[in-house]
Specification:
This protein is mostly helical and about 100 residues long. The chain is about 65% helix and about 0% strand. It has one domain (about 5-95). The chain is built from 5 helices and no strands.
Length: about 100
């Protein structure tokens, strides 16, 4: 059995303390390479998904949440917050 990376536990702690408000904030505490490998994805593919959050499957999002000890609702809210944040940045750029 593969040992789970201890840094996943830090994510739950930082989320509880309010230091994680967007999905990408998770990766301040655990490297994307670790998460990608644990999901069984190539790092390049994972990076593409990170730039296009709408292409993540719910299963992948919920699995990442479970790695971090977050509920489905919590991980969904992080992804939604980042998606909306990115969407608003795109609209601002198109207006100019």
């Amino acid at each position: 059995m593969i040992k789970r990376d201890d840094r996943y536990d830090v994510v739950k702690t930082m989320y509880g303390a309010g230091h994680i408000g967007l999905f990408k904030d998770i990766f301040k505490y655990i490297p994307k390479t670790v998460v990608a490998n644990d999901l069984g994805k190539k790092v390049d593919r994972f990076n593409k998904l990170m730039s296009r959050l709408d292409e993540f499957t719910l299963k992948d999002m919920y699995t990442i949440g479970s790695f971090c000890g977050l509920t489905e609702r919590q991980i969904y809210e992080l992804v939604e917050a980042e998606y909306l944040h990115n969407k608003s940045k795109i609209k601002k750029v198109k207006k100019t």
